[in-house]
Design a protein that fits this description.
The structure holds 2 protein chains of 2 kinds.
Chain A: H1 2-17, H2 19-41, E1 47-53, H3 58-69, E2 73-78, H4 82-91, E3 96-100, H5 104-109, E4 114-121, H6 125-146, E5 157-164, H7 175-202, H8 204-210, H9 215-244, H10 253-277, H11 281-299, H12 311-316, H13 321-335, H14 339-368
Parallel strand pairs in A: 1-2, 1-3, 4-5
Antiparallel strand pairs in A: 3-4
Chain B: E1 3-14, E2 17-28, E3 32-37, H1 43-50, E4 58-63, E5 66-67, H2 72-78, E6 79-83, H3 94-104, H4 109-122, H5 138-149, E7 156-160, H6 168-183, E8 187-192, H7 195-198, E9 203-208, E10 211-216, H8 218-225, H9 230-238
Parallel strand pairs in B: 3-8, 3-9, 6-7, 7-8
Antiparallel strand pairs in B: 1-2, 1-4, 4-5, 9-10
Helix pairs in contact in B: 3-4, 5-6, 8-9
Classes of the chains: A alpha/beta, B alpha/beta.
Chain lengths: 369, 244
Amino acid sequence: MNRFLAFVKKEFFHILRDRRTLLILFGMPLVMVALFGFALTNEIKNAKIALLDFDHGLHSQQITNRLLSSGYFRLVENVRSYEGIEATFRRGEVRLVVVFPPNFSNDYVHGQQAQVQLLADASEQNTAISLTNYATNIIQGYANEQNPSGSQPVAQINVEPRMVFNPELKGAFVFVPGVMAMVLLLVSALMTSVTIAREKETGTMEVLMVSPLTQPQILFGKVLPYLLLSFLNGCLIIALGVFLLGIPLNGSLALLLVETLLFIFLALSIGILISTIADTQLVAMFASLLIMLMPTIFLSGFIFPIESMPAPLQIISNVIPAKYFISIVKGIMIKGVGLGNLWKETLVLIGMSGVFTAISLRNLKSRLS
Amino acid sequence: MDKAVVTNKLTKRFGNFVATNEITFEVAQGEIFGFLGANGAGKTTAIRMLCGLLKPSSGEARIAGFDVYRQTEQIKQVIGYMSQRFSLYEDLTVRENIRFYGGIYGLSRADLKAKSQQIIEQLNLGSVADKLVVDLPLGWKQRLAFSVALIHNPKIVFLDEPTGGVDPITRRQFWDMIYEAADRGTTIFVTTHYMDEAEYCNRVSIMVDGRIKALDTPNQLKRSFDVDSMDGVFQILARGTSTK
């Protein structure tokens, strides 16, 4: 046990002395959360909108003015019919279309339910949510001003938001689970594979192999510090997501942490697998980036929704570990579901770790004979 | 049974290629045994088998009485190993390196402390004990690596081209350390391709194409091949068959 501790201590020396790595380790989640979080949610100034006004009345005019003077919206197009809306969205510029039905002003003045329809391009879910929220607030604010407080409201304006392209808003808040998956994969898999490859490169691995340390001790000693650091990192990202970006944590925090540990373990087993193949740090790094990072970014549903991928890519996405982790994190944090709904994904992660560990051990054995 | 190394027809095949071919030799306890051969002659494969890193294809070998097939764990306890790459961690200090290697060999806390102090004093490293190894001159690193390889008082220490890339004076100093260790009873199993170093060994074996072509004291070898240096012996044995 003392031998093992001596080994783990040495690993911490390596990590803590390497300032650049530490900076990447803890700077990356900050930067990514900031980038993905704020860049997406703050993209709201001067959003391009279109107008479909069947009413041409006083109130539709005033609400439109109110919307445009808020600073959030910029009118780029007047649409003439419902058919025109789809074409407008397809061109991809316009994020939101405000529709005033015929007789809107008339309905409103005569105390009936007046309706405004908001159609948002939900292929960028975060933007869509924010835009409809802003617009709804402005319209409701207008209605409230017209009905002085205390008096019975004479008329209401019903705002009816509709998401186009992605009606269920799947993928909302996906970036924090995505960033988590990415950072944990990077830290765990890339860094372990690189640090093991480094020992091979400098020849210290030979000495370790000749020493009484067993192979599992060497591997586990390599992995343990990264397990701890990655877990810290995972907690940091969750905290940033919840406190900075206001992502709800509806499910069990304990379950979330356990699943995070499981995913870290999986990432570490991938790192070890890569290190059994790669003999140099450079190879290890490229292997990690190519095998893990790229597919994780593009195929896990992190940036591009899996549902809208072509069929072959959808099939490939099934072997991307991050896909399952992302849906677990989303499930726990946003939907508030428990293990009862997530056991399939959890089993997949466990199974993958088992397979990767088994292949690594076999690779190590065949090296010796 | 007081032989440090005993092999009998030890062989390693990789597919059709025979890396070491039925090598048979003995090394006595406390001996300085030179293991010579051109690159690719099979030295490294042989050493890896003796250290328990590689399973032999056939033949026998015992290290300090332990069998290389079944008792690799015991073998690891009684051998030390140093390669030409010195195997120190450059981002650790001198003291941390010593403690790390002592630690993985299971030295107690008190032993570790005493050993580090002893090594640092012996090597005159007091002023740099808490400096990172990366800043040390090559010769210092080499001597430190050797001391570290001996930290658990192994019966046998395997030195795989330990003096690669080091100037002759430093090499001479290093051999003084080797002699001291041998005087204390440690068996030294050393590979080298510097022929002047071969002269320092008690006995020398020369491998060519996986086989041991000659094995004797340097003086005896020179006499039987009728040359006046080990380099001459080596040239006669290896000429035409190696790429050196």
